[in-house]
Amino acid sequence: MKSKKKEVILLIILLILQSIIYVLVGMNKSYIHIDEAYSYGLANYEIVEIEHNEDFFNNWYNKEYYEDYLSIQKEEAGNFAPVYENQKNDVHPPLYYLFLRIAMGFTIGHFSKWTGIVLNIIIYAFITIFMYLILGKLLQNVKNSKIKAMLLAFISSVTLASLSNVIYIRMYALSTLEILITIFLHIKLLESEKISPKLLIGIGVSVLAGVLTHYYYLFYVVILYLIFFIKYIKEKKTKELLYYTLTIAISGIVSLIIFPYSIKHIFFGYRGQGVVSNLGNIKEIIPSIFSQIHNLNYYAFNDLMYTIIVIIIGILIYANIRKKNMNKINKEEKEILKIIIVPTLFYFLIAAIASPWRVLRYIVPVCGLIFILVIYYLYKLLQTVFSEKISNILICILFCVILLSPFIFKLEPELLYRDNKELVQELEGKLNLPTIYLYNSQSAGFLNDILLFSIIDESYIAKDIECTEENIREIVKDKDITKGIILFINDGQKNETLIETVKESLDFTNCEHLQRLFNCNVYYIY
Protein backbone atom coordinates (compact mmCIF):
# COMPACT_ATOMS: atom_id res chain seq x y z
CA MET A 1 0.00 0.00 0.00
CA LYS A 2 2.82 2.41 0.95
CA SER A 3 4.65 1.50 -2.27
CA LYS A 4 1.57 2.33 -4.35
CA LYS A 5 1.16 5.64 -2.55
CA LYS A 6 4.78 6.55 -3.31
CA GLU A 7 4.26 5.71 -6.97
CA VAL A 8 1.18 7.94 -7.15
CA ILE A 9 3.07 10.80 -5.46
CA LEU A 10 6.01 10.42 -7.88
CA LEU A 11 3.64 10.36 -10.86
CA ILE A 12 1.90 13.52 -9.63
CA ILE A 13 5.29 15.25 -9.16
CA LEU A 14 6.31 14.32 -12.71
CA LEU A 15 2.98 15.56 -14.09
CA ILE A 16 3.40 18.88 -12.26
CA LEU A 17 6.99 19.18 -13.51
CA GLN A 18 6.02 18.49 -17.12
CA SER A 19 3.16 21.00 -16.85
CA ILE A 20 5.58 23.67 -15.60
CA ILE A 21 7.85 22.92 -18.58
CA TYR A 22 4.87 23.28 -20.92
CA VAL A 23 3.91 26.63 -19.40
CA LEU A 24 7.48 27.93 -19.77
CA VAL A 25 7.58 26.88 -23.43
CA GLY A 26 4.08 28.28 -23.97
CA MET A 27 5.22 31.66 -22.65
CA ASN A 28 7.70 31.81 -25.55
CA LYS A 29 5.04 31.08 -28.16
CA SER A 30 4.78 34.46 -29.86
CA TYR A 31 2.49 33.85 -32.82
CA ILE A 32 -0.07 31.46 -34.24
CA HIS A 33 0.03 29.34 -37.39
CA ILE A 34 -2.76 29.67 -39.96
CA ASP A 35 -4.23 26.32 -38.85
CA GLU A 36 -4.29 27.48 -35.24
CA ALA A 37 -6.25 30.55 -36.35
CA TYR A 38 -8.64 28.12 -38.03
CA SER A 39 -8.92 26.17 -34.77
CA TYR A 40 -10.25 29.23 -32.96
CA GLY A 41 -12.39 30.44 -35.85
CA LEU A 42 -13.93 27.06 -36.59
CA ALA A 43 -14.80 26.58 -32.93
CA ASN A 44 -16.68 29.84 -32.67
CA TYR A 45 -17.18 31.97 -35.79
CA GLU A 46 -20.34 31.96 -37.88
CA ILE A 47 -18.50 30.92 -41.07
CA VAL A 48 -15.31 28.98 -41.86
CA GLU A 49 -13.20 31.94 -43.02
CA ILE A 50 -13.48 35.57 -42.02
CA GLU A 51 -12.44 36.61 -45.57
CA HIS A 52 -15.72 35.19 -46.84
CA ASN A 53 -17.63 38.05 -45.24
CA GLU A 54 -18.99 40.15 -48.12
CA ASP A 55 -17.58 43.39 -46.75
CA PHE A 56 -14.23 42.00 -45.52
CA PHE A 57 -11.98 43.54 -48.17
CA ASN A 58 -11.44 47.21 -48.95
CA ASN A 59 -12.87 48.55 -45.69
CA TRP A 60 -11.35 49.94 -42.51
CA TYR A 61 -11.89 47.80 -39.41
CA ASN A 62 -10.82 47.99 -35.79
CA LYS A 63 -9.03 45.18 -34.00
CA GLU A 64 -12.24 43.87 -32.43
CA TYR A 65 -13.50 42.90 -35.90
CA TYR A 66 -10.63 40.43 -36.33
CA GLU A 67 -10.53 39.33 -32.71
CA ASP A 68 -14.17 38.29 -33.09
CA TYR A 69 -12.93 35.44 -35.33
CA LEU A 70 -10.52 34.26 -32.64
CA SER A 71 -12.72 34.59 -29.56
CA ILE A 72 -16.21 34.04 -28.18
CA GLN A 73 -18.25 37.17 -27.54
CA LYS A 74 -20.55 37.43 -24.54
CA GLU A 75 -23.72 37.08 -26.61
CA GLU A 76 -22.30 33.96 -28.32
CA ALA A 77 -21.36 32.11 -25.12
CA GLY A 78 -24.21 29.60 -25.28
CA ASN A 79 -24.12 29.05 -29.04
CA PHE A 80 -22.26 25.82 -29.87
CA ALA A 81 -23.64 25.54 -33.42
CA PRO A 82 -20.38 26.72 -35.12
CA VAL A 83 -18.56 23.70 -33.66
CA TYR A 84 -20.68 21.42 -35.85
CA GLU A 85 -21.61 23.66 -38.78
CA ASN A 86 -18.07 24.84 -39.53
CA GLN A 87 -16.63 21.32 -39.44
CA LYS A 88 -19.36 20.21 -41.80
CA ASN A 89 -18.06 22.79 -44.28
CA ASP A 90 -14.37 22.18 -43.56
CA VAL A 91 -12.26 18.99 -43.59
CA HIS A 92 -12.09 17.69 -40.00
CA PRO A 93 -14.49 16.00 -37.55
CA PRO A 94 -15.77 18.13 -34.63
CA LEU A 95 -14.72 16.63 -31.28
CA TYR A 96 -11.52 18.64 -30.72
CA TYR A 97 -13.32 21.87 -31.62
CA LEU A 98 -15.95 21.11 -28.99
CA PHE A 99 -13.26 20.87 -26.30
CA LEU A 100 -11.55 24.03 -27.59
CA ARG A 101 -14.88 25.86 -27.61
CA ILE A 102 -15.41 24.92 -23.96
CA ALA A 103 -11.87 26.13 -23.13
CA MET A 104 -12.49 29.41 -24.99
CA GLY A 105 -15.44 29.99 -22.66
CA PHE A 106 -12.92 30.93 -19.95
CA THR A 107 -11.63 33.90 -21.98
CA ILE A 108 -14.85 35.40 -23.33
CA GLY A 109 -14.39 38.64 -25.23
CA HIS A 110 -10.72 38.27 -26.08
CA PHE A 111 -8.26 35.90 -27.72
CA SER A 112 -5.73 34.00 -25.63
CA LYS A 113 -3.21 31.40 -26.75
CA TRP A 114 -3.54 29.90 -23.28
CA THR A 115 -7.01 28.46 -23.89
CA GLY A 116 -5.56 26.09 -26.48
CA ILE A 117 -2.27 25.50 -24.68
CA VAL A 118 -3.86 24.76 -21.29
CA LEU A 119 -6.31 22.38 -22.99
CA ASN A 120 -3.31 20.52 -24.45
CA ILE A 121 -1.49 20.56 -21.10
CA ILE A 122 -4.47 18.79 -19.52
CA ILE A 123 -4.60 16.31 -22.41
CA TYR A 124 -0.88 15.65 -22.00
CA ALA A 125 -1.30 14.80 -18.34
CA PHE A 126 -3.49 11.90 -19.50
CA ILE A 127 -1.06 11.09 -22.33
CA THR A 128 1.74 10.64 -19.78
CA ILE A 129 -0.51 8.51 -17.56
CA PHE A 130 -1.48 6.19 -20.42
CA MET A 131 2.10 6.05 -21.68
CA TYR A 132 3.07 5.01 -18.15
CA LEU A 133 0.36 2.32 -18.11
CA ILE A 134 1.51 0.96 -21.48
CA LEU A 135 5.16 0.95 -20.37
CA GLY A 136 4.09 -0.73 -17.14
CA LYS A 137 2.84 -3.64 -19.25
CA LEU A 138 6.00 -3.74 -21.39
CA LEU A 139 8.37 -3.55 -18.41
CA GLN A 140 6.37 -5.65 -15.96
CA ASN A 141 9.12 -8.29 -15.71
CA VAL A 142 11.85 -5.71 -15.07
CA LYS A 143 13.07 -4.74 -11.60
CA ASN A 144 11.55 -1.42 -10.38
CA SER A 145 9.35 -1.52 -13.48
CA LYS A 146 6.89 1.12 -12.31
CA ILE A 147 9.58 3.73 -11.59
CA LYS A 148 11.26 3.04 -14.92
CA ALA A 149 7.92 3.21 -16.73
CA MET A 150 7.17 6.57 -15.10
CA LEU A 151 10.54 8.08 -15.98
CA LEU A 152 10.40 6.92 -19.60
CA ALA A 153 6.80 8.18 -19.92
CA PHE A 154 7.90 11.54 -18.53
CA ILE A 155 10.90 11.81 -20.88
CA SER A 156 8.70 10.95 -23.87
CA SER A 157 6.38 13.79 -22.85
CA VAL A 158 9.08 16.47 -22.76
CA THR A 159 10.84 15.77 -26.08
CA LEU A 160 10.59 18.49 -28.73
CA ALA A 161 7.82 16.51 -30.44
CA SER A 162 5.69 16.56 -27.30
CA LEU A 163 6.45 20.23 -26.58
CA SER A 164 5.47 21.06 -30.16
CA ASN A 165 2.28 19.04 -29.77
CA VAL A 166 1.36 20.94 -26.61
CA ILE A 167 1.92 24.46 -27.97
CA TYR A 168 0.40 23.73 -31.40
CA ILE A 169 -3.27 24.51 -30.94
CA ARG A 170 -4.76 21.76 -33.08
CA MET A 171 -6.33 18.35 -32.61
CA TYR A 172 -3.09 16.34 -32.65
CA ALA A 173 -2.59 16.16 -28.87
CA LEU A 174 -6.12 14.79 -28.49
CA SER A 175 -5.50 12.31 -31.31
CA THR A 176 -2.28 11.21 -29.56
CA LEU A 177 -4.22 10.53 -26.37
CA GLU A 178 -6.90 8.54 -28.19
CA ILE A 179 -4.30 6.33 -29.88
CA LEU A 180 -2.67 5.62 -26.50
CA ILE A 181 -6.01 4.84 -24.85
CA THR A 182 -6.91 2.54 -27.75
CA ILE A 183 -3.55 0.73 -27.49
CA PHE A 184 -3.82 0.34 -23.71
CA LEU A 185 -7.34 -1.09 -23.93
CA HIS A 186 -6.21 -3.52 -26.64
CA ILE A 187 -3.35 -4.66 -24.39
CA LYS A 188 -5.98 -5.33 -21.71
CA LEU A 189 -8.00 -7.20 -24.35
CA LEU A 190 -4.91 -9.24 -25.23
CA GLU A 191 -4.47 -10.22 -21.58
CA SER A 192 -8.13 -11.09 -21.02
CA GLU A 193 -9.22 -14.70 -20.88
CA LYS A 194 -12.81 -13.61 -21.41
CA ILE A 195 -13.95 -10.44 -23.14
CA SER A 196 -15.65 -8.21 -20.60
CA PRO A 197 -18.52 -5.92 -21.70
CA LYS A 198 -16.84 -3.05 -19.80
CA LEU A 199 -13.65 -3.45 -21.84
CA LEU A 200 -15.58 -3.61 -25.11
CA ILE A 201 -17.48 -0.44 -24.20
CA GLY A 202 -14.16 1.26 -23.39
CA ILE A 203 -12.73 0.22 -26.77
CA GLY A 204 -15.90 1.34 -28.53
CA VAL A 205 -15.85 4.77 -26.89
CA SER A 206 -12.13 5.25 -27.60
CA VAL A 207 -12.61 4.34 -31.28
CA LEU A 208 -15.62 6.66 -31.52
CA ALA A 209 -13.66 9.54 -29.99
CA GLY A 210 -10.65 8.85 -32.22
CA VAL A 211 -12.69 8.87 -35.43
CA LEU A 212 -14.46 12.08 -34.36
CA THR A 213 -11.11 13.80 -33.74
CA HIS A 214 -8.95 13.05 -36.79
CA TYR A 215 -9.41 10.79 -39.80
CA TYR A 216 -5.79 9.61 -39.67
CA TYR A 217 -6.80 7.70 -36.52
CA LEU A 218 -8.46 5.25 -38.90
CA PHE A 219 -5.03 4.22 -40.20
CA TYR A 220 -4.19 3.06 -36.70
CA VAL A 221 -7.39 1.36 -35.66
CA VAL A 222 -7.89 -0.54 -38.94
CA ILE A 223 -4.49 -2.27 -38.58
CA LEU A 224 -5.15 -2.93 -34.90
CA TYR A 225 -8.47 -4.52 -35.83
CA LEU A 226 -6.80 -6.72 -38.48
CA ILE A 227 -4.24 -7.97 -35.91
CA PHE A 228 -7.01 -9.06 -33.55
CA PHE A 229 -9.11 -10.41 -36.43
CA ILE A 230 -6.23 -12.72 -37.46
CA LYS A 231 -5.52 -13.61 -33.83
CA TYR A 232 -9.12 -14.67 -33.13
CA ILE A 233 -9.36 -16.58 -36.42
CA LYS A 234 -6.15 -18.50 -35.63
CA GLU A 235 -7.32 -19.26 -32.11
CA LYS A 236 -10.81 -20.15 -33.38
CA LYS A 237 -12.42 -17.68 -30.98
CA THR A 238 -15.51 -17.01 -33.07
CA LYS A 239 -17.56 -15.50 -30.26
CA GLU A 240 -14.79 -13.10 -29.24
CA LEU A 241 -14.26 -12.08 -32.87
CA LEU A 242 -17.99 -11.42 -33.26
CA TYR A 243 -18.19 -9.24 -30.13
CA TYR A 244 -15.02 -7.36 -31.04
CA THR A 245 -16.12 -6.79 -34.64
CA LEU A 246 -19.55 -5.60 -33.49
CA THR A 247 -17.89 -3.15 -31.09
CA ILE A 248 -15.75 -1.59 -33.85
CA ALA A 249 -18.66 -1.60 -36.30
CA ILE A 250 -21.06 0.05 -33.83
CA SER A 251 -18.45 2.74 -33.09
CA GLY A 252 -18.16 3.45 -36.81
CA ILE A 253 -21.93 3.59 -37.28
CA VAL A 254 -22.43 5.88 -34.26
CA SER A 255 -19.67 8.19 -35.54
CA LEU A 256 -21.50 8.47 -38.87
CA ILE A 257 -24.82 9.12 -37.12
CA ILE A 258 -23.16 11.93 -35.13
CA PHE A 259 -21.17 13.29 -38.06
CA PRO A 260 -22.31 11.86 -41.43
CA TYR A 261 -20.21 14.47 -43.26
CA SER A 262 -17.18 12.25 -42.62
CA ILE A 263 -18.14 10.33 -45.78
CA LYS A 264 -17.95 13.51 -47.84
CA HIS A 265 -14.67 14.57 -46.24
CA ILE A 266 -12.92 11.22 -46.68
CA PHE A 267 -14.14 10.23 -50.13
CA PHE A 268 -15.10 13.45 -51.88
CA GLY A 269 -13.34 16.30 -50.02
CA TYR A 270 -10.16 17.84 -51.36
CA ARG A 271 -8.15 16.49 -48.42
CA GLY A 272 -9.45 12.94 -48.87
CA GLN A 273 -8.72 13.08 -52.59
CA GLY A 274 -5.31 14.60 -51.80
CA VAL A 275 -4.48 11.59 -49.59
CA VAL A 276 -5.35 9.18 -52.41
CA SER A 277 -3.36 11.26 -54.89
CA ASN A 278 -0.27 11.36 -52.63
CA LEU A 279 -0.44 7.62 -51.98
CA GLY A 280 -0.37 7.09 -55.75
CA ASN A 281 2.52 9.47 -56.35
CA ILE A 282 5.31 6.87 -56.44
CA LYS A 283 8.10 9.40 -57.10
CA GLU A 284 7.41 11.21 -53.82
CA ILE A 285 7.01 8.17 -51.53
CA ILE A 286 10.68 7.73 -50.57
CA PRO A 287 11.44 11.50 -50.21
CA SER A 288 8.32 11.91 -48.04
CA ILE A 289 9.28 9.02 -45.76
CA PHE A 290 12.87 10.23 -45.37
CA SER A 291 11.70 13.78 -44.69
CA GLN A 292 9.47 12.54 -41.87
CA ILE A 293 12.24 10.30 -40.53
CA HIS A 294 14.32 13.47 -40.30
CA ASN A 295 11.46 15.16 -38.37
CA LEU A 296 11.24 12.08 -36.14
CA ASN A 297 14.95 12.32 -35.36
CA TYR A 298 14.90 16.06 -34.71
CA TYR A 299 11.70 16.34 -32.69
CA ALA A 300 10.94 12.92 -31.15
CA PHE A 301 14.57 12.17 -30.18
CA ASN A 302 15.89 15.73 -29.80
CA ASP A 303 18.24 15.12 -32.75
CA LEU A 304 19.73 11.96 -31.18
CA MET A 305 17.91 9.16 -33.04
CA TYR A 306 20.75 8.44 -35.46
CA THR A 307 23.22 8.32 -32.56
CA ILE A 308 20.96 5.85 -30.72
CA ILE A 309 20.67 3.70 -33.86
CA VAL A 310 24.48 3.63 -34.21
CA ILE A 311 24.72 2.55 -30.54
CA ILE A 312 22.14 -0.21 -31.13
CA ILE A 313 24.04 -1.47 -34.22
CA GLY A 314 27.31 -1.33 -32.24
CA ILE A 315 25.84 -3.43 -29.42
CA LEU A 316 24.43 -5.96 -31.89
CA ILE A 317 27.83 -6.32 -33.60
CA TYR A 318 29.64 -6.60 -30.25
CA ALA A 319 27.15 -9.16 -28.91
CA ASN A 320 27.49 -11.19 -32.11
CA ILE A 321 31.33 -11.14 -32.00
CA ARG A 322 31.37 -12.05 -28.31
CA LYS A 323 28.59 -14.60 -28.86
CA LYS A 324 26.54 -13.08 -26.06
CA ASN A 325 23.08 -14.46 -25.40
CA MET A 326 20.57 -11.80 -26.37
CA ASN A 327 18.33 -10.60 -23.57
CA LYS A 328 15.26 -12.39 -24.88
CA ILE A 329 11.85 -10.83 -25.04
CA ASN A 330 9.29 -13.23 -23.64
CA LYS A 331 6.13 -14.31 -25.45
CA GLU A 332 3.86 -11.94 -23.52
CA GLU A 333 6.09 -8.95 -24.29
CA LYS A 334 6.24 -9.96 -27.97
CA GLU A 335 2.46 -9.96 -28.21
CA ILE A 336 2.24 -6.52 -26.61
CA LEU A 337 5.03 -5.22 -28.85
CA LYS A 338 3.28 -6.53 -31.96
CA ILE A 339 0.07 -4.64 -31.30
CA ILE A 340 2.08 -1.46 -30.69
CA ILE A 341 4.73 -1.71 -33.42
CA VAL A 342 2.65 -2.81 -36.42
CA PRO A 343 -0.09 -0.11 -36.33
CA THR A 344 2.43 2.53 -35.21
CA LEU A 345 4.75 1.93 -38.16
CA PHE A 346 1.81 1.68 -40.56
CA TYR A 347 0.43 4.99 -39.28
CA PHE A 348 3.85 6.63 -39.58
CA LEU A 349 4.40 5.44 -43.17
CA ILE A 350 0.91 6.30 -44.42
CA ALA A 351 0.90 9.69 -42.68
CA ALA A 352 4.36 10.44 -44.12
CA ILE A 353 3.28 9.56 -47.66
CA ALA A 354 -0.31 10.80 -47.68
CA SER A 355 0.00 14.15 -45.90
CA PRO A 356 -0.09 17.37 -47.91
CA TRP A 357 3.08 18.72 -46.24
CA ARG A 358 6.16 17.04 -44.77
CA VAL A 359 5.76 18.53 -41.32
CA LEU A 360 5.80 17.13 -37.79
CA ARG A 361 2.11 17.43 -36.95
CA TYR A 362 1.01 14.57 -39.21
CA ILE A 363 3.28 12.03 -37.50
CA VAL A 364 3.30 13.50 -33.99
CA PRO A 365 0.51 11.23 -32.59
CA VAL A 366 2.90 8.25 -32.86
CA CYS A 367 6.20 10.01 -32.04
CA GLY A 368 5.96 9.12 -28.35
CA LEU A 369 5.28 5.46 -29.12
CA ILE A 370 8.24 5.25 -31.53
CA PHE A 371 10.43 6.92 -28.90
CA ILE A 372 9.56 4.45 -26.14
CA LEU A 373 9.90 1.46 -28.49
CA VAL A 374 13.44 2.47 -29.49
CA ILE A 375 14.48 3.16 -25.88
CA TYR A 376 12.89 -0.12 -24.74
CA TYR A 377 14.84 -2.06 -27.37
CA LEU A 378 18.07 -0.23 -26.50
CA TYR A 379 17.56 -1.05 -22.81
CA LYS A 380 17.08 -4.73 -23.63
CA LEU A 381 20.27 -4.75 -25.69
CA LEU A 382 22.28 -2.98 -23.00
CA GLN A 383 21.33 -5.74 -20.58
CA THR A 384 22.85 -8.22 -23.06
CA VAL A 385 26.36 -6.81 -22.55
CA PHE A 386 26.13 -5.02 -19.19
CA SER A 387 24.72 -5.68 -15.75
CA GLU A 388 21.31 -4.26 -14.86
CA LYS A 389 22.94 -1.57 -12.69
CA ILE A 390 25.24 -0.33 -15.48
CA SER A 391 22.37 -0.52 -18.01
CA ASN A 392 20.27 1.67 -15.71
CA ILE A 393 23.11 4.19 -15.36
CA LEU A 394 23.65 4.33 -19.14
CA ILE A 395 19.94 4.86 -19.81
CA CYS A 396 19.84 7.62 -17.18
CA ILE A 397 22.81 9.30 -18.87
CA LEU A 398 20.98 9.05 -22.21
CA PHE A 399 17.89 10.63 -20.62
CA CYS A 400 20.00 13.51 -19.32
CA VAL A 401 21.53 14.06 -22.77
CA ILE A 402 18.06 14.02 -24.37
CA LEU A 403 16.81 16.58 -21.86
CA LEU A 404 19.87 18.83 -22.23
CA SER A 405 20.37 18.60 -26.01
CA PRO A 406 17.83 21.38 -26.84
CA PHE A 407 19.85 23.77 -24.64
CA ILE A 408 23.24 22.57 -25.89
CA PHE A 409 22.37 22.53 -29.60
CA LYS A 410 19.79 25.38 -29.53
CA LEU A 411 16.91 23.16 -30.68
CA GLU A 412 13.37 24.53 -30.46
CA PRO A 413 9.88 23.08 -30.70
CA GLU A 414 8.14 23.48 -34.03
CA LEU A 415 6.13 26.69 -34.54
CA LEU A 416 7.38 28.48 -31.44
CA TYR A 417 7.65 31.74 -33.45
CA ARG A 418 10.06 33.23 -30.96
CA ASP A 419 11.41 35.55 -33.68
CA ASN A 420 7.99 37.21 -34.10
CA LYS A 421 7.80 38.34 -30.48
CA GLU A 422 9.36 41.75 -31.09
CA LEU A 423 7.07 42.48 -34.05
CA VAL A 424 3.98 41.61 -32.02
CA GLN A 425 5.11 43.90 -29.20
CA GLU A 426 5.94 46.76 -31.60
CA LEU A 427 2.62 46.62 -33.44
CA GLU A 428 0.75 46.41 -30.16
CA GLY A 429 2.75 49.35 -28.76
CA LYS A 430 4.68 52.21 -30.38
CA LEU A 431 3.94 51.12 -33.98
CA ASN A 432 0.21 50.65 -33.49
CA LEU A 433 -0.50 52.82 -36.54
CA PRO A 434 -3.04 52.75 -39.37
CA THR A 435 -2.21 49.62 -41.34
CA ILE A 436 -2.73 48.78 -45.00
CA TYR A 437 -2.39 45.27 -46.37
CA LEU A 438 -1.78 45.26 -50.14
CA TYR A 439 -3.31 41.83 -50.63
CA ASN A 440 -2.70 39.73 -53.71
CA SER A 441 -5.51 37.15 -53.82
CA GLN A 442 -3.34 34.82 -55.92
CA SER A 443 -1.10 34.41 -52.86
CA ALA A 444 -3.87 34.15 -50.28
CA GLY A 445 -3.30 33.36 -46.62
CA PHE A 446 -4.65 36.24 -44.54
CA LEU A 447 -5.26 33.96 -41.55
CA ASN A 448 -1.49 33.50 -41.24
CA ASP A 449 -1.38 37.01 -39.79
CA ILE A 450 -4.81 37.58 -38.26
CA LEU A 451 -3.22 37.74 -34.79
CA LEU A 452 -1.46 40.99 -35.73
CA PHE A 453 -4.66 42.53 -37.06
CA SER A 454 -6.43 41.62 -33.82
CA ILE A 455 -4.00 43.91 -31.93
CA ILE A 456 -3.71 46.80 -34.44
CA ASP A 457 -6.28 49.55 -33.79
CA GLU A 458 -7.14 50.26 -37.44
CA SER A 459 -6.43 48.27 -40.59
CA TYR A 460 -7.49 47.99 -44.21
CA ILE A 461 -7.15 44.89 -46.40
CA ALA A 462 -6.80 46.21 -49.96
CA LYS A 463 -7.55 43.25 -52.21
CA ASP A 464 -6.08 43.29 -55.73
CA ILE A 465 -6.26 47.08 -55.99
CA GLU A 466 -4.29 49.06 -58.53
CA CYS A 467 -1.64 50.70 -56.36
CA THR A 468 -1.82 54.29 -57.60
CA GLU A 469 -1.21 57.49 -55.68
CA GLU A 470 -4.88 58.38 -56.01
CA ASN A 471 -6.05 55.01 -54.58
CA ILE A 472 -3.59 55.13 -51.67
CA ARG A 473 -4.66 58.70 -50.76
CA GLU A 474 -8.31 57.63 -50.93
CA ILE A 475 -7.66 54.70 -48.56
CA VAL A 476 -6.01 56.83 -45.85
CA LYS A 477 -8.41 59.75 -46.20
CA ASP A 478 -9.52 60.95 -42.72
CA LYS A 479 -6.86 58.80 -41.00
CA ASP A 480 -4.17 60.21 -38.71
CA ILE A 481 -0.95 59.19 -40.46
CA THR A 482 1.34 61.85 -38.98
CA LYS A 483 3.53 59.13 -37.42
CA GLY A 484 3.48 56.98 -40.55
CA ILE A 485 1.71 53.77 -41.52
CA ILE A 486 2.36 50.03 -41.38
CA LEU A 487 2.34 48.28 -44.75
CA PHE A 488 1.83 44.55 -45.35
CA ILE A 489 2.59 43.15 -48.81
CA ASN A 490 2.03 39.47 -49.50
CA ASP A 491 3.91 37.42 -52.08
CA GLY A 492 3.68 37.71 -55.84
CA GLN A 493 3.99 41.50 -56.01
CA LYS A 494 6.73 44.03 -56.82
CA ASN A 495 7.38 45.23 -53.29
CA GLU A 496 9.85 48.00 -54.10
CA THR A 497 7.52 49.55 -56.68
CA LEU A 498 4.56 49.42 -54.28
CA ILE A 499 6.59 50.93 -51.43
CA GLU A 500 7.78 53.81 -53.63
CA THR A 501 4.21 54.52 -54.75
CA VAL A 502 2.97 54.58 -51.14
CA LYS A 503 5.83 56.86 -50.05
CA GLU A 504 5.24 59.32 -52.88
CA SER A 505 1.48 59.40 -52.47
CA LEU A 506 1.71 60.13 -48.72
CA ASP A 507 4.83 62.35 -48.79
CA PHE A 508 6.88 59.88 -46.75
CA THR A 509 10.62 59.46 -47.25
CA ASN A 510 11.60 56.47 -45.11
CA CYS A 511 10.86 52.76 -45.19
CA GLU A 512 11.93 50.26 -42.55
CA HIS A 513 11.51 46.52 -43.15
CA LEU A 514 10.15 45.12 -39.89
CA GLN A 515 9.75 41.39 -40.51
CA ARG A 516 9.36 38.66 -43.08
CA LEU A 517 6.33 36.56 -42.14
CA PHE A 518 5.15 33.30 -43.70
CA ASN A 519 3.92 34.73 -46.99
CA CYS A 520 4.19 38.49 -46.57
CA ASN A 521 6.57 41.29 -45.58
CA VAL A 522 5.83 44.04 -43.04
CA TYR A 523 7.16 47.58 -43.45
CA TYR A 524 7.06 50.81 -41.45
CA ILE A 525 6.61 53.74 -43.85
CA TYR A 526 7.18 57.24 -42.41
Description:
This protein is of the alpha/beta class and 526 residues long. It folds into two domains: 326 residues, no CATH class; 108 residues. Helices cover 64% and strands 6% of the residues. The chain has 23 helices and six strands. Strands 1-3-2-4-6-5 form a six-stranded mixed sheet. α1 runs antiparallel to α6 and α13 packs across α14. The longest helix is centred in the N-terminal third of the chain and has 26 residues. The N and C termini lie far apart (72 Å). The relative contact order is 0.11.
Observed structural traits:
526 residues, alpha/beta, 2 domains, 6-stranded mixed beta sheet, 23 helices, 6% strand
N→C terminal distance: 72 Å
Give the CA-based shape.
globular
| Spans of at least 5 consecutive residues with low confidence | none
Derived from helix and strand composition plus strand pairing, the structural class reads alpha/beta
C-alpha Rg (nearest Å)? 26 Å
Integer average pLDDT = 96
Counting structural domains, the number is 2
Total number of helical segments? 23
Please tally the β strands and state the result.
6
Strand line-up of the largest beta sheet: 1-3-2-4-6-5
Order of helices and strands: HHEHHHHHHHHHHHHHHHHHHEHEHEHEE
What share of the residues does DSSP label as strand, in percent?
5-15%
Q: Level of helix content?
A: 55-70%
User: What characterizes the major β-sheet?
Assistant: 6 strands, mixed
